[in-house]
Amino acid sequence: MIKTFLTAAAVILGTAVALPSASWAQSESKSAAPTKTSAQKKAAKSASAKITHKLAIQVAENNPQLMNLALNNARNVVEYYKAKGEEVAIEIVTFGPGLHMLRDDTSPVKQRIAAMALETPGVTFIACANTQANMSKQENKQISLISEAKVMPSGVVRIMELQGKGYSYLRP
Length: 172
What we know:
About 50% of the residues lie in helices and about 15% in strands. It is an alpha/beta fold and about 170 residues long.
């Protein structure tokens, strides 16, 4: 290609051009095409073979129907990707009145969560520490959570962090 360009330029300008050797042109064309190392090829293959889907589900209302809908959504997503042989990570994040979903004394879905936690390890239940502290203060007692709950400093901040990590957001 370089040889053709230089020859054409020489004809247009009416001058003689000393062309590089054929071996130089061949090595130039080979080095122009980037090559992948075997490690890069393995990494690309591994990344495409292990796609992880990520979903953050917000529960911010003390509504048993909404809590059950969030659990249904999580189960349906897990089953969908499981059938495709793909992984999924789901965090159900509770804050405000939605914390009742994970309260040991008031959760209308705690038995369902216990069963789901055993069946679907890719689903995590997050409780907002700010809400827990405020409820404790208002009710003048320690608010205990179900054993499946993982406490994070702030539910809203957790949603933000998850979205920053590429999680899709769902508010049923």
